[in-house]
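Issue 218. Parser rejects a valid record. Input:
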Amino acid sequence: MKKALPILLAAALVAPAFARGVDPIVSVEWLAANSAKPGVVVVDVRKVDDYKAGHVPGAVNVLGLFVAKDGLSNEVPEADDLSEIIADAGIDAASTVVVVEADGARFAWATRVAWTLVYAGVPNVAVLDGGYAEWTKAGKETASGFESRDGTDFKVKFVDSYISTKDYVVKNLRRAQIVDARSYDTYFGVTKQGFVEQFGHIPGATALPASWLTVGGLVRPKAELEEAVKALKLDPKKDMVVHCDSGVLCTAWWWILSQQLGWTKVRSYDGSAQEISKDPAVKFVKYVWK
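Output the parser choked on:
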């Protein structure tokens, strides 16, 4: 037995890229009713010590699903490494995976893991709404220590349409919708992360902060998210790239747009501003909203 490594919207929507067998965001009640069913894998992505102290019964602790690489903070691991991590967690392409983070404030970290899994070829992935905090708040049973599952022979089959490279962004600056998931202050150019070379944002990018997505620790109702993207005149029929500073926050909006709202032309850029701001051919703009 292998052990787990500690490891909104235009009126017309297009159909999702695959037929989902699970909602992209699930409630504590759903998880309590389904976690023990065959094929369901609960993946706890919190720190090892937090997982050992208490977790959803049956959950495996999985880390390493994004790594520092080539001078960038949060990149997809090499295919062989990612295949091993996913297989050792007991996941295969037919699994239903539920990602559990600490709480709603960590929603984007949960979606970064969920995005990595669906990008790697595991289509039925969900995020637990409110994370482990919501689980304990509801008084659900918990377990401690480590748990593991039988390993699988999973091999990644990347879904190329889910990811953007810098080259793709540069070639499509005038054609694709660029969505910036960072805070307003960062987008506007008032502040920036030290690892980002330029203040401001990619010319023409639309500001859509990931912080809007949750309220009271839970993801906002679908209708509110649809209203937000519709008001910004984002088009589900046009190609879109969502970015942030280093490839985490952008996955939150990718998850909502692609997996919850069914937009099929959305890519997440994991190199994000950390990478593209180093390109002298891409001049960020400040103090403007487009």
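Fixed in the parser; the record now loads. The longest strand covers residues 40-44.
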